[in-house]
Amino acid sequence: MSNNYLEIIRPGINTTFQDKGRDHLYHIGIPFSGAMDNRNYLLANKLVNNNLDSAVIEFAYQGPHIKYSGEKINFAVTGDVIFSIKKKDTEMEGKCYESYQIENGDEINIISTNKSVYGYLALGGEFDLKFQWNSCSINTKANIGSNDGKKIDVGQRINLKKINSNKDIKKTNYINTKIENIRVIKGTNFDYFSEEGKKIFYEKEFTVSKLSDRMGMRLEGSKIDNIVNTNIKSEGLIKGVIQVPADGNPIIMLSDHGTIGGYPKIGVVASVDYDRLVQMSPGSKIKFKEINLSDAETLFKLYEMETQNLLSQI
Amino acid sequence: MIKNISNLGDAALYCDFGNEVNKSINSQVIKYFKTIKEKKFEGINNLTPSYNKLIISYDLKKTNFKEVKNYVENINAQDSKDIYSKKLEIPVCCHENFSMDIKRLEEILKLSREKILENFLNKEYFCYMTGFIAGMPFLGDLDENMRAQRLETPRVKVPKGSVAVTEQFANIYTFESPGGWNILGNTPLDVFDSSKEDKPNLINPGDRVVFKEITLDQYKNYNE
């Protein structure tokens, strides 16, 4: 039994272990999973001197309150998150994108994400987790991954099998930018929708519904009218696909999505905007903007370069 | 053959084999799927075969639409081995504890319970694809007089093992999940087992499946 571990005093709403996710499994019905906001996931690992593909704790809205036992270790929180660190008799407010050192008996209390959805807690070391298909990402719908594929629960003990010897404190200045428009590429069934429906899709605002989770984001707004067929023969999906079922309200596929679907696809979110899309909380307004494939590819390259720059500055 | 290749977003290829659902088109899809899977092209990270489409997802950090399209266009899928196809018998218990939608089907299809089961059981179905939820097989084709629409309001929870039908297809719910298909019975077999990483799915595209009826007692004792 490891002497370095976390105890979960309060688990939070949707707290899971996530890493880079698992590939080559769509054909048997298993989605990628993995950290929803990839950039913040990578930054969290870099801030505590981890390998970039290490597992972190992902939380949504309210995060976990944990107590640490063991030898000194670093941790960092990324995202737009309000949290505090309790050491003996003092409690201080924590700052995102800075690493802190904690020791036996210290507590981290992640109160909530701020006008966003997901945040990340990385510890400088390696959690003792079960891997399935080279990933410990938890998929709670299929019960796949570490922790028997279930959310992290109250009273649980999480062991660390390794603590990094490099305990340098690191920090970076990063601000999560909000974007006005989510850029989309025309979907394969774009012509299933009426002229009016297409206009609504690009010109009207949609509201993120409360019925959104790691599988999908449901939107509400003006109905998008279908003039061909509200069903297609079921076929593969990828993350970012925007399906419009018979009720006319779009649903965006997110990282834990079903691998096959039978609703027409009006568009697909450009990869460059995925990290920012998943951070839009219920009630947020979304407007879509059309983009062509080659611009989407170029913009993603720039976004990726920016991510690499941010990482190299830490 | 692939009739058309287009892009699905900026990180996937959409290969269209036609609009019909039949074995011959689906076998083409599976052939391409197997050939590409074996070749392990750098950057391709997922392949999703379905009735008549193949979606090829790739890592935009490693490759792009043009490269993957060019690669797929020059593949000779005919070289691949014949599609793997094993025949499986799936035990199913159609006791009223499990056959939740049989009354609904009796009304829609205007057939008796006995006739519905006779039409459904002991016939060979072809596995077109697996997915939606992990390991769920999409099997076909049901007899013409067996085709019913989905429930108007899908169930929030369909029990694990449920064997269900809609339109010309049958499927098996590999674990508890939401769903709107008409439930005829339940199988005690584990159709998806995540602890078997190299072979989690009992049924794979190209396989043939026959449902054999078992009694409630046989069902209860099945895993003992």
Topology:
The complex is a heterodimer of chains A (314) and B (224).
Chain A: E1 5-10, E2 16-18, H1 38-47, E3 56-60, E4 65-69, E5 73-78, E6 81-87, E7 90-93, E8 99-102, E9 107-113, E10 118-123, E11 125-127, E12 157-163, E13 181-186, H2 195-203, E14 206-208, E15 216-220, E16 235-236, E17 241-243, E18 251-253, E19 260-261, E20 265-269, H3 274-278, E21 285-290, H4 293-312
Chain B: E1 4-7, E2 12-16, H1 23-39, E3 44-49, E4 53-58, H2 65-73, E5 87-93, H3 102-109, H4 113-120, E6 124-130, E7 137-140, E8 155-158, E9 162-166, E10 169-172, E11 177-179, E12 182-186, E13 208-214, H5 216-221
Parallel strand pairs in B: 5-13
Antiparallel strand pairs in B: 1-2, 2-4, 3-4, 6-7, 6-13, 7-10, 8-11, 9-10, 9-12
Give structural notes.
The complex is a heterodimer of chains A (314) and B (224). Chain A is an alpha+beta fold. Chain A has two domains: 159 residues, no CATH class; 132 residues, Beta Barrel (Cyclophilin), CATH 2.40.100. Chain A contains four helices and 21 strands. In chain A, the strands form four sheets. Chain A has a seven-stranded antiparallel beta sheet, with no helix packed on it. In chain A, strand 17 and strand 18 form a beta hairpin. Chain A is elongated and about 65 Å long. Chain B is of the alpha+beta class and 224 residues long. Chain B folds into two domains: 76 residues, Gyrase A, domain 2 (2-Layer Sandwich); 135 residues, Cyclophilin-like (Cyclophilin, Beta Barrel). In chain B, 21% of the residues lie in helices and 30% in strands. Chain B has five helices and 13 strands. The longest helix of chain B is centred in the N-terminal third of the chain and has 17 residues. Chain B is elongated, with a radius of gyration of 19 Å.
